[in-house]
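Progress report, Aim 2. The chain analyzed during this reporting quarter is listed below.
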Amino acid sequence: MSKFKFKIKMGLRREDFIWEYTDEPHASRRREILAKYPQMKKLFGYDWRISLQFCATVIIQVFMAYMVRNMSWTELIILTYVVSGTLNHSLSVGLHELSHNLAFGPHRPLANRLLGYFANLPMGVPAFITFKKYHRDHHKYLAVDGWDPDLPTRIEAKMFSSTLGKIIYIGLLPITYSLRPILVMPKKIDILEIQNLVIQLTFDFLIYYFLGYKSLFYLVIGTLLGLGFHPISGHFIAEHYVFIKGFETYSYYGPLNLITFNVGYHNEHHDFPNIPCWRLPEVRKIAPEFYDNLPCHNSWIKVLYDFITCTEMGPYSRIHRDYKVTSEYAIINKNKNVQVIRDSLSNDIVSEKKIE
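Predicted structure tokens for the chain:
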């Protein structure tokens, strides 16, 4: 466990993102780890046992939808937040695993896709295919301005930087997280997204027809509440919001990993996205010197509290980098010295701030 303690200063509210002029750290750390520990490659692959957790969660959610059909609104709302919110958030994080084909491997795309459709059902809204399409860019272009769909937009940052604004921002996470990629970097809708939509709407209709509107409410609103102002939603903030200068990805090693497919092992995941979730703890055991000195979170609830109450924290607390400082840009441009470009961009930003 890292010995770092987050001490966030109560300073002035940020008015811009945190600009970096180096490439993301995960590719270089991956090379270093593999050079020192080639046995890490034995963890690569897939883990079909992930499908068992999906099946159990979907069965529980359908059973709960049946049980709440005649409950009072008070009971329904409580169960929707506590049970459906938690389980649907778990399923949404599980879809992240499937976006990497980690249940049955890249050589069985149909099996992974069908499991994704199945796991998506209790969430009430089609999410799997669209998430998978955009999530690749988050890994490939981590923190690249205009390319990483996980980055808050400047409009979001300006609107939700106050204490009240940050509370609203967290509550709206399922909406902004879903719509931001589509609006900022739209991609053509493909047949798989249409399949996802048709399957989901068919399931929703069957729930409504056979069980009633309260059961559908339990599932759909559970997704909105679970991915919004909910303890597990702390992982949205914990993963890449800058709590300590110089670090852009943070892991969480607490008990909630048990129901969230180890999404807390986020440094390990970005270093090795082709390692299934339940093997990620082994990454840290094999190469402890690469992870034990990295700052990490111990509580997602505290993450939310710090994010809301600290003046310096907010949607602006994300690292942004220009595409021209990335290694991919250098490779495409025949390995041109990217450091010259980085220095130039850095000087441009400094000059702009002096003019302001």
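The chain has 16 helices and four strands. Residues 73-99 form the longest helix (27 residues). These observations will guide the mutagenesis work planned for the next reporting period.
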